[in-house]
Every structure is written in structure tokens, then in C-alpha cells.
Write a structure and sequence with these properties.
- The chain is mostly helical and 260 residues long.
- It is 73% helix and 0% strand.
- The chain has ten helices and no strands.
- The chain has helices spanning 16-21, 30-51, 57-83, 88-118, 123-147, 150-160, 165-170, 176-201, 218-247, 251-255.
- The longest helix has 31 residues, at 88-118.
- The radius of gyration is 20 Å and the shape is elongated.
- The protein starts with 15 loop residues before the first helix and ends in a 5-residue tail after the last helix.
Length: 260
């Protein structure tokens, strides 16, 4: 929190119990906590609803893993904003966990998209894509978590979007379901970009210091957008799933079938 722009409603010298009770009080972390508490519940709900549309065991497994990995981000964020003030050690490690949660959510999106785009084409291609993503996130993720290296953060943000290139380059991008899949993912990305832009520019408190100490300061907007974005990714998955059912095969192979 920026003490220059947010003038009041700070929690100081709180025990863990005091922090837990403060979840139900008004202060400048209240919205930060509850946006991701509620967002996490909505994320799990969306995962359960998506899973109810699946029949294959491997589809259900990927859906479950995606749900659990994504939920880590919401959980880590809520705990960090709720309890990081209890001690310097807790502050250090909880914020590291918060950064790690963001990367885990990004990896979950890669896992989900790569599976439904590649698994029916080639199990080998899916495994290679996931193992490559694990390697990249392991190498570039450490500087993000431990040192907040912005270059590595942006690199991994870009890597998360690589699966979106597959339907653009290899499938029929004019198919309505593919267009809707891409549109939802683009909107999800824009949520992250807009939210991050608000966060780094400190809008609106930079314009009205002290006026947004509790409600709708920049960090709260960042949380709102980083809740909407992941939920839109679930919506995108429905279009991808329906496309796969309609063509009854990998969309990459379908795009390359000769026309009779």
C-alpha cells in the first residue's frame, strides 16, 4: 500500500487472530482480501461446472488440476493481504507466495489450453508443450518470486499466451466457436493488462490522495480485474470444448483435412 496516497485505515501491530477478525472490518485491505476470497470461490464453481460437461477421465483430471492450481492464486493472495502484517518474516514469505500464485495460475491456463488443443492430436506434443512450460516457468519464475524482475514477469505473461497461437495458425480461425474462444481469451488478457496498468499508475488515489483509502483504490481494481480475467478463461474453454465435440477430432487435424 502507498502510505502517501492512502492516508488512513491501516492495520498496525496485529496478531494473526486480530488479522483474522479484521477480515470482517473496514480497512484499506478489506476489498483486496474479499475480491480474491469471492473470486476463488467463483473460480472453483466454474471449474466444477466445466467438469460437469466432461465425460473422459483425462478431461476431468485436467479440469481438476486446472481448478486446484488456479485456486492457489486466489488463496495465496487473500492470505497475503490478510496476514502479512503479523511479522516481517510473514510479510516476506507471504508476498513471495502471492507472486508464486500468479505464476501458478498462468501455468494452469497453459495446461488447460494445451490439453484441449493438442491432446487429441498428439499426446507427445502435449507432453512436450507442458514440460517446456515447466522448464521456462521454473527458470524465469524464481527471479519473479524472489526479486520481482519485471522482464521475467513479462516473459512468462507472454509464454502463457502461446497456446492461443495454435488455433490462429493451424486451425480455421473463421469458425465462430474458435473466434469466440479467442475473443474470451483476449478479453481475459485485457483484464490483466488494464488492471496492472491501474495498479502501477496508482489510479485513482494518485489524483485524489486520501479519498480512496477503503474503496476502489488501485490495488482493489487490480484484484477485481484479476478475478474477472481468469473467469473469462473458463468461458473460453466452453467454446473450445464445443468445437472439439462438433468436429470430433483435434482441431489442428480438422483444419488440415482436404476439402472434397
Amino acid at each position: 500500500m502507498d502510505v502517501v496516497l492512502l492516508h488512513s485505515r491501516y492495520r498496525l501491530h496485529y496478531s494473526a487472530w486480530d488479522c483474522a477478525l479484521s477480515f470482517f472490518a473496514l480497512h484499506n485491505e478489506t476489498l483486496n482480501i474479499w475480491t480474491h476470497v469471492v473470486g476463488g470461490l467463483l473460480w472453483v464453481r466454474e471449474g466444477a461446472l466445466f467438469g460437469s460437461k466432461l465425460e473422459k477421465e483425462t478431461d476431468l483430471q485436467v479440469c481438476a488440476v486446472t481448478t486446484m492450481l488456479g485456486w492457489v492464486m486466489f488463496l495465496a493472495s487473500s492470505i497475503a493481504h490478510g496476514f502479512s502484517i503479523t511479522s516481517p518474516r510473514m510479510e516476506f514469505w507471504l508476498w513471495k507466495a502471492d507472486y508464486a500464485g500468479i505464476l501458478i495460475l498462468w501455468f494452469a491456463r497453459i495446461l488447460f489450453d494445451c490439453y484441449f488443443l493438442l491432446e487429441l492430436c498428439s499426446h507427445h506434443s502435449f507432453v512436450v508443450a507442458i514440460m517446456g512450460s515447466v522448464a521456462i516457468f521454473s527458470i524465469a519464475g524464481v527471479p519473479v518470486v524472489m526479486q520481482k524482475r519485471m522482464a521475467c514477469f513479462l516473459l512468462l505473461f507472454g509464454v502463457m499466451h502461446l497456446p492461443m497461437l495454435l488455433p490462429v495458425l493451424s486451425a480455421d480461425p473463421t469458425h465462430p466457436l474458435i473466434q469466440n474462444f479467442l475473443l474470451c481469451n483476449v478479453l481475459a488478457t485485457l483484464c490483466g493488462v488494464v488492471g496492472f496498468g491501474i495498479f502501477v499508475t496508482r489510479i485513482p488515489e494518485v489524483c485524489f490522495p486520501g479519498r480512496f483509502d477503503i474503496w476502489l483504490h488501485s490495488h482493489a481494481w487490480w484484484h477485481i480485474f484479476t478475478t474477472i480475467g481468469p473467469l473469462l478463461s473458463w468461458r473460453a474453454g466452453y467454446f473450445l470444448l464445443e468445437y472439439r465435440r462438433q468436429v470430433d477430432e483435434c482441431l489442428l487435424h480438422h483444419a488440415n483435412k482436404p476439402t472434397l
